[in-house]
Amino acid sequence: MVRHIVLLRWTETATEQQKQDAEKAFHSLPEKVSQIQKLVCGADLALTPGAHDFAAVLDFASADDWRAYQAHEAHKAMIAEYLAPILAERSVIQFDV
Q1: CATH class label, 2-96
Q2: Which parts of the chain span the membrane according to its record (predicted)?
Q3: pTM score, two decimals?
Q4: Domain limits of the chain?
Q5: Residue 84: which region, alpha, beta or left (left: phi > 0; alpha: psi -120 to 50)?
Q6: What radius of gyration do the chain's Cα atoms show?
Q7: Among 39, 48, 60, 73, which one is most buried in terms of CB atoms within 10 A?
């Protein structure tokens, strides 16, 4: 199984509504992208200074499924509509579980 972890930092001008909309968009992905086996995500709890603002953890059966997700139109649309307008920084990692 491949685990994909995404850490995001929002722009200073990102509104609470935009942040909530981005989280809802992430939550809607499994119903649109069949390759996603599991998705959990949420806003940072602000327990550690300097942490990212948001994290998403997605599981896939294989690297090919992860690649299909990356190329999927629903994933691309979510990035363009909800993330790109408020994204300041992004970090990702994929590893075998």
Answers
A1: alpha beta
A2: none
A3: 0.93
A4: 2-96
A5: alpha
A6: 13
A7: 60
